[in-house]
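User: Working on a comparison across species. This one is Pseudouridine synthase from Acinetobacter tianfuensis. Can you predict its structure so I can line it up against the others?
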Amino acid sequence: MFLEKMLQSQGLGSRKHCQLLIKNGAVSIDGETLINPKHKLNLNNLEFTVHGETYQYREKVYIALNKPRGYECSHQATHHFSVFDLFDDALMNRGIQCVGRLDQDTTGLLLLTDDGQFLQALTHPKKHVAKVYCMNTADPVTTEQMAQLEQGVELRNESGIFAATNVQRLAEYQLQMTVHQGVYHQVKRMLAAVGNKVEQLHRKQIGKLGLTDLSGLQEGEWTYLSAAQIEMAKFREV
Ligand code: URA
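Assistant: Here's the predicted structure for Pseudouridine synthase from Acinetobacter tianfuensis:
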């Protein structure tokens, strides 16, 4: 791939802008400044530097964010911050999107990518990728509510039954459960359907990928996923 095309593919600007970066001597590889926009590159394990900042070439990006409270998953957030405020221009230029949505007041694991196939694989209703949520509830969690969640509940304006698996009471007012779809406000509506209310919601895991697999990722921090972690996120029971 030509140098100018590679820079453009990594979100560093338009073709014209990337040509200028190169011609102005801002781009180097292995310590050598490259001034020919048509310089041919081997993309394997490629690292490059632009204005002193080092980047690794990535064909696609797969990101895990430990989402804080008060951030919306939309680009034009109205009453809160946008999760996209947490990413730099190069990632935004690549057109990263949220893989499913978390409400502004939900915390925890949120994936973002510019790979449309990965996004589809995780969000398509037929794929049933498991998502594990922990929540604080307004009222004590009863055995009856847990049984109802496992049997499944109906949600207004949605077809079918929504059932949770691995429903566990962690404390009198704290519940953990796994859901297999991803409809709007699903967990909050499921809890309302059994007569309780979610006060605080946190996503711990997607597929087999848990926040604990992401070496201490703190709230508001993000990281690139490794190839193995990408597969863990896609994992679904058959
Ligand atoms: N279910 C909800 O109700 N909210 C979320 O943010 C995620 C799942």
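For your comparison, note: The pocket of uracil is lined by residues 102-103, 106, 185-188, 201 (CB under 6 Å).

User: Helpful, thanks.
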